[in-house]
C-alpha cells in the first residue's frame, strides 16, 4: 500500500454501522476498561503507602518496587501480542481480569494473616504487571472487532475520554479511600474493579478473524512477523518510531518533573497534587476534540501538531519561578499538553487499527508498546546522567528539546501525505462471528 493510495482510500461509512451509544459490546467494553483503570489508579495511590508506611520499605526497596511494575511490559509485550492474535481476545480479557483480582487480593489477605512483607509486594506487582500486559494486548486490539471500521476514530476518542475521567476519579478517590479506611483495605476496591471488568468483558460480542492451528507460526516466527510488518509499512514505521522517540524524550522530563516542583519551585505536596490533577483532566478535552480535528485538518497535521504542542507546553517548567502564579501556568500547560497527547494518541491508534489486518492487530500494537516501554528506563538513566554531570535543569532542557524530534520524523516521512484516515484491509479468510 503506497502513501498515495492510503490517502485516497478513506474509510467510507458502512451501511451496517450502528451508533456507538446503542452498541452493547462497545458500551460494555468501555465501562469495564474504565472501571478497572479507576481501580488501578486506587492501586497506584495505595501500594506506595503500604510499602513505605505499613512495611517501612527502605529507599532502595522503593525503586525496585517501581521496576517490578514496569519490567513485565518490556519482557512480555511481544509474546503478549502473539497471544492476542492467536487466541480469542475476549477470553484473554476475562481470564486476566479474574486472575488479577486474585493476585491483588493477596495483599490484604496476607496483611490480615500477619504475613505481608515487601517481597510479597514485589511478587504481586510483577504478576499484576504481567497480567496487565497480556490484558492490554487483547483489549486494545479488540476495538476493531466490536465497532464498525468507519467508527474507529469516535470509538477511540470516547474510550480515551472515559479513561481520562476514570484515571482522575481513581486518583482522587483513591486518596480519599486510603485516608478513610487505610491503604491495605483500599486494595479490595482494586480487586473488585477487576471482577466488574471481567463481567463487562463477558458481555462483549466481537467478530474475529483467527488463523487455523495448522497455519500458526511458532512464537519467535510470529513475533518476527508482527515486528517486520510494522517496520516495513511506510506509514506505521515512522508512526511507531516517533512514538518511541517521544517516550524517550518525555521520560527524561518526567524523571525530574515532581522533583523540580517540590524543590526548585517549592510547590509542596498540595501544589504537586493540584498540578497533577489539572494535567490529568486535560486528557478529556483531547478526547473530545480529536475526531473533529482529524476531520478538519487530517491525521498527519493532528499528529505533528500534537507533538509540537507537547514541546511548547514543556517550556513553562524551564522558566518558572516559585509562586502560585507559576504553578497555575504549569498546571494549565500540563492540561494542554495532555490534551495534545490524547488527541495524537487516539489518532495514531485509529490509523494503526485501520491499516493493520485483523490477524496482526495485537502484534502491531505490542510492537509499539515494546519499543516505548524499552526506552523509558533508558530515558531515566539519561536524565540521571545529565543531572549528575550538569544539572537537573539541563536534563529538563534536553528532554524538552528532544520532544521536537518525533514531529520532525513524522513530517519527513510519507505520513505527511495522509490527509484522510486510511481504510481497514479485509482479512485473508474473511471475517466471521466468534
UniProtKB/TrEMBL annotation:
Membrane-crossing residue ranges in chain numbering: 34-52, 64-82, 94-114, 239-259, 271-290, 302-319, 325-347, 368-388, 394-411
Keywords recorded for this protein, A-Z: Cell membrane, Membrane, Transmembrane, Transmembrane helix, Transport
Matches recorded under CDD domains: MFS_MefA_like (cd06173)
Localization of this protein: Cell membrane
Signal peptide coordinates: none
Topology class, membrane: Multi-pass membrane protein
Matches recorded under Pfam families: MFS_3 (PF05977)
Membrane keyword on record: yes
InterPro entries in the cross-refs: MFS_trans_sf, TM_effector
Protein name: MFS transporter
Species whose genome carries this gene: Streptomyces cinerochromogenes
Amino acid at each position: 500500500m503506497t502513501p498515495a493510495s492510503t490517502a485516497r482510500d478513506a474509510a467510507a461509512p458502512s451501511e451496517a454501522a450502528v451508533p456507538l451509544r446503542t452498541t452493547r459490546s462497545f458500551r460494555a467494553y468501555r465501562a469495564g476498561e474504565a472501571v478497572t483503570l479507576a481501580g488501578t489508579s486506587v492501586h497506584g495511590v495505595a501500594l506506595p503507602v503500604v510499602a513505605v508506611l505499613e512495611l517501612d520499605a527502605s529507599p532502595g526497596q522503593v525503586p525496585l518496587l517501581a521496576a517490578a511494575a514496569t519490567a513485565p511490559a518490556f519482557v512480555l509485550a511481544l509474546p503478549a501480542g502473539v497471544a492476542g492474535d492467536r487466541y480469542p481476545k475476549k477470553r484473554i480479557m476475562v481470564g486476566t481480569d479474574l486472575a488479577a483480582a486474585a493476585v491483588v487480593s493477596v495483599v490484604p489477605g496476607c496483611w490480615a494473616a500477619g504475613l505481608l512483607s515487601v517481597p510479597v509486594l514485589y511478587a504481586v506487582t510483577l504478576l499484576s504487571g504481567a497480567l496487565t500486559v497480556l490484558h492490554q494486548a487483547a483489549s486494545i486490539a479488540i476495538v476493531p472487532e466490536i465497532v464498525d471500521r468507519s467508527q474507529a476514530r469516535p470509538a477511540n476518542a470516547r474510550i480515551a475520554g472515559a479513561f481520562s475521567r476514570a484515571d482522575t476519579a481513581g486518583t482522587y478517590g483513591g486518596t480519599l479511600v486510603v485516608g478513610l479506611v487505610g491503604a491495605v483495605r483500599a486494595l479490595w476496591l482494586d480487586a473488585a474493579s477487576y471482577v466488574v471488568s471481567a463481567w463487562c468483558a463477558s458481555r462483549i460480542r466481537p467478530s474475529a478473524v483467527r488463523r487455523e492451528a495448522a497455519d500458526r507460526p511458532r512464537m519467535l516466527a510470529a513475533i518476527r512477523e508482527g515486528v517486520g510488518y510494522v517496520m516495513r509499512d511506510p506509514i506505521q514505521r515512522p508512526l511507531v518510531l516517533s512514538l518511541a522517540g517521544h517516550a524517550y524524550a518525555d521520560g527524561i522530563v518526567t524523571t525530574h518533573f515532581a522533583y523540580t516542583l517540590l524543590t526548585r519551585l517549592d510547590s509542596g505536596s498540595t501544589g504537586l497534587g493540584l498540578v497533577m490533577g489539572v494535567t490529568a483532566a486535560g486528557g478529556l478535552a483531547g478526547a473530545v476534540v480529536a475526531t473533529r480535528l482529524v476531520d478538519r485538518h487530517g491525521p498527519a497535521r493532528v499528529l505533528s501538531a500534537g507533538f509540537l504542542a507537547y514541546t511548547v507546553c514543556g517550556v513553562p517548567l524551564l522558566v518558572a519561578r516559585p509562586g502560585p502564579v507559576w504553578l497555575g501556568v504549569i498546571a494549565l500547560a500540563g492540561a494542554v499538553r495532555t490534551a495534545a497527547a490524547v488527541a495524537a494518541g487516539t489518532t495514531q491508534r485509529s490509523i494503526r487499527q485501520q491499516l493493520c489486518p485483523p490477524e496482526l492487530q495485537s502484534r502491531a500494537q505490542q510492537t509499539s508498546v515494546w519499543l516505548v516501554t524499552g526506552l523509558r528506563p533508558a530515558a531515566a538513566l539519561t536524565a540521571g546522567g545529565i543531572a549528575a554531570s550538569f544539572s537537573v535543569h539541563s536534563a529538563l532542557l534536553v528532554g524538552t528539546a528532544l520532544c521536537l524530534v518525533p514531529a520532525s520524523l513524522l513530517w519527513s516521512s510519507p505520513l505527511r501525505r495522509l490527509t484522510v484516515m486510511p481504510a481497514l484491509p479485509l482479512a485473508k479468510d474473511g471475517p466471521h462471528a466468534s
